[in-house]
Amino acid sequence: MTVREPEPDPQQRRRAVWEPFEACTNLRYELSICAPRYVVEKSDDSFRRLRDLRDVVTDGFSRDSNEYVTGRHRYDRAYQDLRDAMRKDLGADA
């Protein structure tokens, strides 16, 4: 929704982006005490890339902007690395 609207209210944009992000913070802390270090490292990287993407959207860049596309690709790669690490930890990487 937020990246699709050409001129949303800046406060509305900020709330729409930050509120869902808060849930990720809690999950990140839970993972950091339960998962092996190699999963936590990938989780931290994925979280940072998601945070970067959150900031791009908060700053008002649209989904067609270079900033958004670059941020999205970085997040997608980091998230794939996290999924791969989690699958390895579960023994499901075959």
Account of the protein in words:
By secondary structure, this protein is mainly α. The protein has 3 helices and no strands. The chain has helices at 10-34, 37-58, 66-90. Helix 2 (37-58) runs antiparallel to helix 3 (66-90). The protein is elongated.
Ranges with pLDDT <50 over ≥5 residues?
A: none
Count of alpha/pi helices: 3
Number of strands: 0
Taking Cα atoms only, what radius of gyration do you get, to the nearest Å?
15 Å
How would you characterize the largest beta sheet? none
> Cα distance, first to last residue?
37 Å
Q: Note the beta-strand portion.
A: under 5%
Order of SSEs: HHH
- The helix-and-strand class reads mainly alpha
What's the shape? elongated
Mean pLDDT: 86
The helical percent reads: over 70%
SSE map:
Blueprint: H1 10-34, H2 37-58, H3 66-90
Helix pairs in contact: 1-2, 2-3
Tell me briefly what this model is:
With 94 residues, this protein is mostly helical. It has helices at 10-34, 37-58, 66-90.
